[in-house]
Amino acid sequence: MNGQKIPIVDPHHHLWVHGKERFLCDELYGDIEASGYDVQATVFIECTSMYHPRGPEEFRPVGEMEFANGCGALGESGVLGPTRICSAIIGYADLALGERVKGVLEKLCAAGGERIRGIRYITSHEPEVKIQAPKDIMLDPKFQQGFACLKEFGLRFDAWQYHPQLPQLLKLVRMAPETPVVINHAGGLVGMGSFAGRREESIAAWRRSLTELAAEPNVFLKVGAFSMPVFALTPDMPKGPEHLAIFAERVRPLVETCVEIFGVRRCMFESNFPVSRETYTYKETWDVLMSAARNFSLSEKQQMFAETARQFYAI
To answer: CA nearest 27: which of 18, 37, 16?
Structure first.
């Protein structure tokens, strides 16, 4: 069966205007149409865009939720194409507010309506890669209080951190076992900086941490974003048509490890667009994942390319 005929629910993309960079509904629909893939629905993930310009800082992310919900209504209408873009939305709230975050969650839920599904708080902190959150934020009592509030609103949690931080995520997860959690970008295996010289050690630690997290039944895994610099899989890639096949072969063992640990019912493939656009087109992104998943059966691929995301995000 042609991979382009396998239904896809893309569980991770952004829409934004950052400076001169624009990736909005028209661009997303254009990429989907040009790919030739049967992308049936998508999940919008927060990206600090379209915030309210005024008012208390903690409530400004409500603007992004309002924007994404409007895009979801556009997707539902079918005016620009058959794909139901933004059929589920993951917003942002500052969980470090502790129980004060409840006020923000209330406004986000009101703005997101039937499409809001959860919150992402980026906790990634690795001096050799990027610092996007205070060190050990997941161990902070205030943050843990905020995380615990998600259950009250029936919200999921999207987690993004680097693999050395996965043990901290495990502690957080165990504090609220009723809250569904999905780990972004295959757990953020670091392959750059000093990690480049200890690849086997890093993979072993990454695998061990993912195995511990997979023992928690509320934890799922997004498999993708392997072209991000943190993975260090593309720096020496040759130019030309052969690069996709080479990249897919580098990605394949990581994909197979993720599925071995979490199983097909808790793994979902993702585009991470437009971040991945820096390296590959939307079509090429799915081409690579289809190739890397070639050893799985048709039913397994259908599960990971569409059904896991559909079930996790209640699409």
So the answer is: 16
Of 82-96, 104-118, 232-246, 301-315, the range with the lowest mean pLDDT is: 232-246
Amino acid identity, position 174 = R
Model pLDDT for residues 64-107, shown as the tens digit of each residue? 999 999 999 999 999 999 999 999 999 999 999 999 999 999 99
Cα(283)–Cα(92) distance, integer angstroms:
28
pLDDT attached to residue 239: 66
List beta partners, residue 158: 120, 182
19 burial via Cβ count (<10 Å: 0-12, 13-18, 19+) = exposed
Segment 25-48 shows an average pLDDT of 98
CA 222, CA 309: separation in Å to the nearest integer? 9
pLDDT at 242: 80
Q: Letter for the amino acid at 214?
A: A
Overall pTM > 0.90? yes
Give 189's contacts (C-beta < 8 A, 6+ positions apart): 163, 202, 203, 206, 230, 231, 254
> In whole angstroms, what is the distance from residue 302 CA to residue 267 CA?
11
Containing H/E element for 261? helix 243-262
CA distance 101 to 145: 9
The pair phi, psi for residue 214, each rounded to 5°, is -65, -20
Tell me, rounded to whole angstroms, the distance of Cα 168 from its chain centroid: 18
- Cα gap 21→5, rounded to integer Å: 31
Which residues, other chains included, contact 245 with Cβ-Cβ below 8 Å and sequence gap of 6+? 291
Cis, bond preceding 217 (omega within 30 deg of 0): no
Look up the domain containing 242 and give its range.
3-312
Q: Which residues are CB-contacts of 48 (< 8 A; sequence separation ≥ 6)?
A: 16, 61, 64, 92
Provide the CATH number for the domain around residue 179: 3.20.20.140
Please count the structural domains in the chain: 1
Contact call for residues 181 and 220 (beta carbons, < 8 A): yes
How many whole angstroms separate alpha carbon 281 and alpha carbon 278?
8
